[in-house]
Design brief:
5-stranded antiparallel β-sheet, rod-shaped
């Protein structure tokens, strides 16, 4: 990944992270504010519902008290007292009373026997279990309205009941009136949009909940949460809250539910009033915030890409120019320069780069000059050394000739013949030395053509096969480990020059094993290149010698010009390849040649 792309990705990531963080914080703050406001609204609604319910209790109590004070009611009580204890003729008396707004009305004796029942006349003479034998019945005039479960023809139902006492002398009667709680009763409470009121009532501890009001279908998790909430309120007798889930088209939504207990005459929980507030609005708000955040993120990413592309280009262009200039320097072009006119860190970097290249160029020129001087000095030293050896015998021979001419003229002819042979031999040595130096200085340009490197290795080894098993010499065994895929024309090279380089390596291997050993010739296909190896099990090369192996005229042998490995390196280099040595003292040496298959010159 380029620096420009990295900067663009970094800028875009910063924009996305920033927008996401802002969206999350706004979402949290909005939801928190909504929950706080919704909680306050739910609590206010619940309090309003409780107040309305309390007013209903007061209204029922007042209507029953007013009914008890009516003349018709008093006249009915007088008639019943005259016929006590036979009340059969009064079984329909409750229906004759004027009791508007009271759909529940009963006339009771002090022991709870029903004299007359408006909502179920057939219960005449039955005992009212909730009333009979209770001390509070004697305090009917002081008792307010309360919730009570009553029997109706269709089954038990919940009603608001108020009881009032009518006393005529020694005769005491009770009138119990009220309103039955049904769907219309619960729906009469004012509900703001998004909120609903539900009444949950259990006729008996083992029975299912009877629901009055708007009960919406809940999820399985919502039903379990509702069950826990109702049980908690019934067990503690205190208000409680819970988050419920209910089904809607396409999924489920949450509701904040507040439950309040409604008590009966004995201050037990007769029913639970549930006030629920839907969280659809806050869910919609969250979705809207997320949508806006995604739109802003997309716009931010696009803007970030544009800005980052411009900034990245401004930042990375000088860096790319420096990179290209560094490549030029690496390839040997020390005259390269970059623009250092910027007045910032990149400008200072470009200035430092230009100064470095100038110093490198100066150092390179000095080094080249020093190497030239050193090379000429080394050449003069080696040439003087090589010429000194044959010149000394020439000098001695000439001196012997002069001495014989002066002192023993009669033996001059014999001395001349012997000296002539010596002169010819040493002159031949001088010519050979001059020819070797001349050959090294005039290395021909490779003529590339397809060749088999395996065949080149085998032919180079054949030159030295007589020495491997020569009489009086330690045995040298040649081993071949050649890649079969390289048998055909596998590389573009000059066969003669490559042969010359390989024979020099094989010659070194033979001389490195004065006590015999193994020489291994190996070839490998490395994809775009071919690898050739010449290994021996000789004495090896020290680390100091390894660093100077390919230096012209350097040799560690008693007899040698030091040009063999230099010639091999020159041949390999002209083919665009590379040569190096791997050695360990007393274990052997391996010379490795790597050549490009297409013969192209490698940098």
């Amino acid at each position: 990944m380029t620096l420009r792309l990295k900067l663009m990705v970094a800028f875009s990531a910063i924009v996305v992270v920033s927008v996401t963080l802002v969206a999350v914080l706004v979402n949290i703050a909005a939801v928190h504010a909504y929950d706080r406001a919704e909680g306050e609204r739910s609590a206010l609604l619940a309090e309003q519902v409780r107040q309305q319910f309390a007013r209903r209790l007061v209204e029922v109590a007042e209507r029953v008290a007013e009914l008890a004070r009516q003349d018709s009611t008093v006249q009915l009580a007088i008639a019943m007292s005259r016929n006590a204890p036979d009340y059969s003729q009064f079984a329909d008396a409750a229906e004759r009373l004027n009791a508007p707004g009271l759909d529940v009305l009963e006339l009771l004796t002090p022991d709870g026997a029903i004299i007359a029942s408006k909502h179920w006349p057939a219960r005449f003479g039955y005992q009212e279990e909730w009333f009979a034998g209770r001390p509070a019945a004697a305090e009917g005039n002081a008792q307010g309205a309360f919730l009570q479960s009553l029997d109706f023809p269709a089954g038990p139902a919940l009603a608001i009941i108020a009881v009032r006492q009518i006393q005529l002398g020694q005769h005491v009667f009770y009138i119990a009136g009220g309103q039955r709680l049904d769907e219309h009763f619960v729906q009469s409470f004012a509900e703001p949009m998004g909120m609903r009121t539900t009444l949950y009532w259990q006729p008996s501890p083992a029975s299912e909940n009877v629901v009055l009001g708007d009960e919406r279908e809940s999820t399985a998790a919502g039903q379990e949460s509702l069950r826990r909430l109702l049980e908690r309120v019934r067990n503690t007798g205190a208000a409680s809250s819970e988050t419920l889930e209910r089904k809607v088209a396409g999924g489920a939504v949450e509701e904040a539910a507040h439950a309040f207990p409604l008590l009966d005459r004995q201050q037990r929980v007769a029913a639970v009033l549930l006030v629920s507030s839907s969280r659809e609005a806050v869910d919609a708000l969250e979705r809207r915030i997320r949508w806006i955040a995604m739109m802003v993120s997309a716009a931010g990413i696009l803007l970030g890409l544009l800005i980052s592309a411009a900034l990245a280009a401004r930042v990375t262009r000088p860096v790319e120019e420096l990179g290209k200039a560094a490549d030029e320097v690496a390839s040997g072009n020390l005259n390269i320069r970059v623009d250092d006119s910027r007045q910032d860190e990149l400008g200072r970097l470009a200035y430092a780069f230009n100064r470095m290249t100038r110093e490198l160029l100066e150092s390179h020129e000095k080094l080249v000059q020093s190497e030239r001087v050193a090379a000429w000095r080394e050449l003069a030293r080696r040439l003087a050394h090589e010429l000194k050896n044959p010149l000394f015998p020439l000098q001695i021979t000439v001196e012997n000739l002069l001495r014989a001419k002066e002192q023993t003229p009669e033996q001059f002819d014999e001395v001349f013949r012997e000296s002539g042979q010596t002169l010819q031999a040493e002159i031949g040595n001088l010519k050979g030395i001059i020819d070797r130096f001349s050959d090294f200085s005039k290395m021909p340009t490779p003529e590339l053509q397809p060749i088999s490197v395996n065949e080149s290795l085998r032919q180079a080894a054949r030159v030295y096969e007589p020495q491997f098993c020569a009489k009086g010499r330690p045995l040298i065994t040649a081993r071949y480990d050649l890649d079969k895929t390289l048998e055909q024309n596998s590389v573009q090279a000059d066969f003669e020059l490559l042969q010359r380089a390989l024979t020099n390596l094989i010659s070194n291997a033979v001389e490195a094993m004065p006590e015999g050993g193994y020489m291994t010739l190996r070839s490998r296909d490395d994809g775009d290149t071919v690898r050739l190896e010449v290994s021996d099990t000789g004495v090896g090369i020290s680390e100091e010698e390894s660093s100077r192996l390919f230096t012209p005229y350097y040799t560690s042998k008693a007899h040698g010009t030091g040009l063999g490995l230099a010639i091999a390196q020159s041949v390999v280099s002209d083919h665009g390849g590379k040569i190096w040595a791997q050695s360990e003292e007393q274990k052997g040496t391996t010379f490795v040649i790597r050549l490009p298959k297409n013969g192209a010159r490698r940098p």
